[in-house]
Amino acid sequence: MTVDISTPAMGDAPAPVVRDRTTVQTPRLGLRDLIDEMVSGLLGRPGRLVLTALGTVLGITALVSTLGLAETAGNQIVSRFDELAETRVVVAPSDTGFGGQSGTSSIPWNAEERLTRLNGVAAAGTKSDVDVSGALSKSVPIVDPLGINEHQIGVIATSGGLLDAVRGQMATGRFFDAGHDERRDPVVVLGPAAAQRLNIFQVDIQPAIFIGEQAFVVIGIIDDVAREPDLLNAIVMPNGTAREFYGLSAPAEVHIDADVGATQLVAGQAAEVLAPDDVESLRVQASSGYTAVRADVEGDVNALFFVLGGVSLLVGGLGIANVTLVSVLERTPEIGLRRALGAARRHIAGQFLLESTVTGLLGGIIGASVGVLLIVAVSAVREWTPVLDGWLPFAAVGLGALIGLIAGTYPALRAAQTEPITALRSG
Amino acid sequence: MTLIDTGAGASTPPNRPEAVTPVIELREVGRTFPGPPPVEALKPSNLRIDPGEYVSIVGPSGSGKSTLLHLLGLLDRPTAGEFLLDGIDTGSLGDNARAGLRGSRIGFVFQSFHLLQHRTVRENVELAQVYNRMPRRDRRARAEAALERVGLSHRIDFTPRTLSGGERQRVAVARALVSEPSLLLADEPTGNLDTEMSAEIMDVFDALHRAGLTLAVITHDLDVSARAERRVRITDGRLRPA
User: Fold this and answer.
1) Which residue in A76, A204, B65, B125 has a CA-CA distance of 20 to 30 Å to B228?
2) Which residues pair with A129 in a beta bridge?
3) Residue B225: other Cβ atoms inside 10 A
4) pLDDT value for A30
């Protein structure tokens, strides 16, 4: 064959390279060139790219979906607690503990009446422990030397509305009302545990109990309460009755069941309604306790899933490191060629580092997307509201890239150490 | 020593050999590999290649050919003597500057071509311009011009897999030419080719020589070395004119 070769500067060929014969130009790799080389390097072996990224995809998917599902599930649990917690308001004198008997309480006896006039109050009632001076309770006025039929049972005085305020139901009979209170009738209602200890199971025969020597008629037995479980193991009597027989001086605390969403409104007004002359003497507590439960539940679930996601990510990172290392060994001739074409060691390291970082980044993007889809799918099946922190998918993508970067460091350094001599001969 | 004055050496006044800056100048250059026992792969030798020369370096395997190739290609450093490339003392240069010199002044042609299988012919040629500050917009035209010089304009968008061995090696030659190096350094360029394809490559080399390029071809093939205008023999680590 014949080859016709003209001089390089002839015709419309590009201008010859003008080079100062004595200066040495250090090699340079522009950002666009670096990106081009990275893209070609990755897309040249699409199958390998997919397999390499798969580990990160799985890890990020696991992380995003578990974190998101933990949050979603946590919010379902919390929403069940919330309705109860968010409607609870308790008012007590600021200088005594809750439930303690108070000699200086400024809560008026008609607290229930005053509060139920407020907008947003579904029910309200006072509650005070009654000091019975250690008197024992029994259901029959017989001293039986063989059987123990006397018990130390707590006595609590309430207003008629308390049962509704703590969302209680009666098992049998009825709760006392304002009439009993006013007339100071010797009637009581028993908590289920107290009723069992006193052997009273029905009230239609008007059973009586004795506290010390004083007789009281049992008019009802409580089934359950949603708040203030100490009522379940107590003898409950009207305020008036407690004042009459035990000299109760003032209600110890007021319980309010607020309408949903009205809690803050009620809490803000309660003290002024109860003690307009001395607002500071009362302490109002709204929606308590359950916030801690919420944090606990979420924390536990998250910690577990975080470990799972972390392990899968570690595996994903090792996958990238492994495949990149194999790739470096396999591409040794290419590395040698690039070095012969003037690439500095840092250019080689940079290219492999960028390739592994982008692999991790792609894995992160796909993983975060699949993870979000999983959360939505699971939520749809379970009829949950999917909940996800807005930053999570983006953080997951960043994490994928970071893992690629870390995983690629050692292979990239190995690539940079490759001697062109050995590399070029091995081809 | 013959001097062919050509366009490539146009800055040098003709007919005054002593004023010409040689492309390659080895002054008592030796390379000893540390032992035990130490191996003196290249004994202190002198070599001068002037612009436009076509030199072949022949020798049996194990004679130090590879060592010489690596030294000439700045892929290795001599343990003794001085190596001047285009008058630049390479001994004082760091890794970075040596990589820069390699990328801009030496065009490599290898026995096994070393083309990237996933890239087209043009992309393979353009790759040689990535590291040496060639503006991106010029690269395509330069790559096409280089491919035209080796007669491969019709194969520009092919991938190396679809080419014959001779064509692949011509792509490698185009890649070596594209940054207009001072020296085209070929290592057994016909080692993987049959006779016909070898002749094809040798024709290309002849044409490049006529156009003024400086060539150094390392080979054990006497037919190939016979095409050069000057031959240097290397035996047992010693260089001498053949």
Assistant:
1) B125
2) A156
3) 21
4) 81
Of B93, B118, B141, the CB nearest to A44: B118
Helix (H, G, I), strand (E, B) or coil at A283: strand
For chain B, what is the largest distance between any 2 Cα atoms, rounded to a whole number of angstroms? 53
CB atoms within 10 A of CB B220: 15
Please name the residue of chain A whose CA is at the shortest distance from the CA of residue B151.
Answer: A3
- Per-residue pLDDT of A147-188, as tens digits, reads 677 888 899 999 999 999 999 999 999 999 989 999 999 999
Chain-centre distance for alpha carbon B109:
6
Cβ within 8 Å, pair B100-A3: no
Sign of CA pseudo-dihedral A85, A86, A88, A90: positive
pLDDT in tens, A356-402: 999 999 999 999 999 999 999 988 988 888 888 889 999 999 999 99
Higher per-residue confidence, A21 vs B78 = B78
Buried b (16+ CB within 10 A) or exposed e, A4-13: ebebbeeeeb
Is the pLDDT at A291 greater than 60, yes or no?
A: no
Closest chain A residue to B77, measured at CA: A421
* pLDDT recorded at residue B134: 80
Task: Give the residue from A253, A229, A306, A269 showing the smallest Cα distance to A65.
Answer: A306
Q: How far apart are CA A300 and CA A98, in angstroms?
A: 30
DSSP label at B135? -
- The verdict on a CB contact (< 8 Å) between B97 and A24 is yes
ipTM above 0.95, yes or no: no
Q: What is the pLDDT of residues A89-126, one digit of tens each?
A: 888 887 644 444 444 567 888 888 899 898 889 999 99
Which helix (H) or strand (E) element contains residue A50?
helix A46-85
Pure H helices in A161-200? 162-165, 178-183, 192-197
CB-nearest to B100 from A9, A24, A425 is: A24
Integer Cα distance of B66 and A424 in angstroms: 11
Residue type at position B71: L
Query: Which residue has tokens 């991106």?
Result: B136
